[in-house]
Amino acid sequence: MRAVRLLLFVVGAAATAYGGWLLLPQLGTALPWLIGGPVVHDVLVAPLVGLVGLALGRLVKNRLRLAWITAGLLASATLLLIAVPLLWRPPSAPPNPGLPDRDYPLGLTVGLAVLWAVIMIVLIVATTVDRRVANRPTDRP
């Protein structure tokens, strides 16, 4: 077991060293992203997520509904994170003639609208089922 761990450590260290060597020529442009990403996360994103989580925990008492809303927020954040490079600036490479140009803001808007429409439908159905179950007469004497 010790030999396997040592082998994995050596392979991981070699891969890290190789990645650092490949990054070295681009370090000037990559350094702001390597430092700025964690700083922005720790200063802005993490406290915001914590506050939203606290607010949702107090506002939504039903655990199933809370899970669906949380999943929707996580999926929305993922879509926005993926879309940032496409929305931030025009592509730095020439367009690929085999791929059609896309309207990325419209695509992001449609994706978010479909995501939240599905979540709203699920929540409406869950509420309807809960009401029917609560209003069902019991057969107990």
Protein model, in words:
The chain has helices spanning 2-23, 27-59, 63-88, 104-135. 80% of the residues lie in helices and 0% in strands. With 141 residues, the chain is mainly alpha-helical. 0% of the residues are buried.
Short summary:
This protein is mainly α. The chain has helices at residues 2-23, 27-59, 63-88, 104-135.
Largest sheet: none
What would the principal axes of the Cα set say about the shape?
extended
What's the quaternary structure here? single chain
Number of helical elements: 4
The helix-and-strand class reads mainly alpha
Strand residue content: under 5%
Q: Give me the strand/helix succession.
A: HHHH
- Average pLDDT works out at 87
Radius of gyration: 24 Å
Tally of strands? 0
> Ranges with pLDDT <50 over ≥5 residues?
none
Cα distance, first to last residue?
Answer: 65 Å
Helix content: over 70%
List the helices and strands and how they pair.
Blueprint: H1 2-23, H2 27-59, H3 63-88, H4 104-135
Helix pairs in contact: 3-4
What are the main properties of this structure?
141 residues; mainly alpha
